[in-house]
Write a structure and sequence with these properties.
By secondary structure, this protein is mostly helical. The protein contains 8 helices and no strands.
Length: 131
């Protein structure tokens, strides 16, 4: 997408972030959650990705914070159907169980709207992913 390309180019402009690292981040990251993490100055989201350590995550967040603000990238809590609450907890749990970030996000986005808690969401998402 256009956002992914723009973020890729921004990542390439950072010191010690090459094409391989930038692609690795984009392959694992949900763009909306990445924007949210940078807007909130929270490197935790990035540290959950393989190959991204605490110092690198902090540096990326610090460097991108002002650029994201200038370009109007918002840190909205609900973007692309996933919020920072129970949905993110469900995604994190699925990733911890070995599912790829993208598959976990899609499984959560496909959940019925009447689900409002992590336990029910996780059970339903696991059932959907295993079928």
């Amino acid at each position: 997408t256009r956002d992914e390309l723009e973020i890729f180019e921004l990542l390439l402009g950072l010191p010690k972030v090459g094409p391989k690292s930038a692609l690795q981040i984009l392959a694992q990251a949900d763009i909306a959650l990445l924007k949210d993490a940078v807007a909130q100055e929270d490197p935790t989201y990035l540290t959950k990705m393989s190959g991204i350590g605490k110092k690198t995550a902090e540096k990326i967040v610090h460097e991108l914070k002002d650029v994201f603000a200038e370009r109007g990238f918002s840190g909205a809590a609900v973007v692309a159907g996933v919020s920072a609450g129970w949905q993110q907890e469900t995604i994190d749990a699925l990733v911890a169980l070995g599912y790829p970030q993208k598959a976990a996000r899609e499984a959560v986005q496909a959940l019925p709207e009447d689900i409002t808690d992590t336990n029910t969401a996780l059970t339903t998402a696991l059932r959907n992913l295993s079928s």
